[in-house]
From TrEMBL:
Keywords: Kinase, Transferase
InterPro entries, per database record: Kinase-like_dom_sf (IPR011009), Prot_kinase_dom (IPR000719), Ser-Thr/Tyr_kinase_cat_dom (IPR001245), Ser/Thr_kinase_AS (IPR008271), Ser/Thr_Kinases-Pseudokinases (IPR051681)
Protein name, per record: Serine/threonine-protein kinase HT1
SMART domains (alphabetical): S_TKc
Signal peptide: none
PANTHER family for this protein: SERINE/THREONINE-PROTEIN KINASE TNNI3K-RELATED, SERINE_THREONINE-PROTEIN KINASE STY46
A GO term for molecular function: ATP binding
SUPFAM superfamilies tied to this protein: Protein kinase-like (PK-like)
Entry keyword Thylakoid: no
Protein kinase domain residues: 1-255
Length: 255
């Protein structure tokens, strides 16, 4: 769901969801004024502002809001209120009275994995890449355990705190097209970004220098038959095993 993100961070930074992002530099008074203008902004947000903590505010432009977008917005707020996990972006508050629609979340200073890889031309070394995969799998396993289907999992919706060298944490974000699965398992037909849909749609070439067990895991996740794909709990087990082997190899190689 497109929207403007506004935070109290001290520099202009994209933080990795669909839409345009603006960060307010040294503009506490301006942010407070903005908060006052939004009638239903939660007490939680005011508490965060008064502590001068960084937050991200996703604002829907009134002139672009339609019925479908309002429904998507309501679904996103409903789901984000339900979840709390260290690998899922933390919901802080929301204003739900049109035309002042916004969602407030924690601010992820590292930006998105997509921006790191494509705009900053960054590169994860294998140990860090495995940490990223483990964090994402933990967040997704938690969501699936709670019958929440994200439906738009991609690098742009994975936000980072910290950096590769120290305390890197990755969290799943953007629940605009997520859905709660009914007991019957029935889901609506709407899905997420085309390029990031079901794995049988696109099968990119795995680089030849990829860790063999990681390549094998990718092939498992791309099985044509969904029943043959591992769930995120199984993926976590495999990733932990690969991490142990990689760590052991690095330790022995450094001796």
């Amino acid at each position: 769901m497109a929207g403007h993100w506004i935070g109290t961070y001290s520099s202009v930074t994209e933080i990795g969801c669909k839409g345009k992002y603006v960060c307010l530099a040294d503009a506490f008074d301006e942010l407070l004024s903005f908060a006052v203008e939004i009638e239903q902004l939660t007490i939680a947000l005011r508490r965060e502002i008064l502590k001068i903590e960084d937050v991200a505010i996703k604002v829907l432009k009134p002139e672009r809001v339609n019925v479908d977008m309002q429904r998507e917005f309501a679904q996103e707020v409903y789901i984000m209120r339900k979840v709390r996990h260290k690998n899922v972006v933390q919901f802080i508050g929301a204003c739900t009275r049109p035309p002042s629609l916004c969602i407030v979340t924690e601010f992820m200073s590292g930006g998105s994995v997509y921006d790191f890889l494509h705009k900053q031309k960054g590169l994860f070394k294998l140990p860090a890449l495995l940490r990223v995969a483990i964090d994402v799998s933990k967040g997704m396993a938690y969501l699936h355990q709670n019958n929440i289907i994200h439906r738009d999992l991609k690098a742009a919706n994975l936000l980072m705190d910290g950096n590769e060298a120290s305390n890197l944490v990755v969290k799943v974000a953007d629940f605009g097209v997520a859905r709660v699965k009914a007991q019957s398992g029935v889901m609506t037909a709407e899905t997420g970004t085309y390029r990031w849909m079901a794995p049988e749609g696109l099968r990119p070439t795995i680089p030849k220098n990829t860790n063999p067990k990681l390549a094998q895991l990718l092939e498992m996740c791309w099985q044509q038959d969904p029943a043959k794909r591992p769930d995120f709990f199984e993926i976590l087990e495999i990733l932990h095993q690969i991490t142990k082997e990689v760590s052991s190899f690095i330790s022995n190689y450094s001796l």
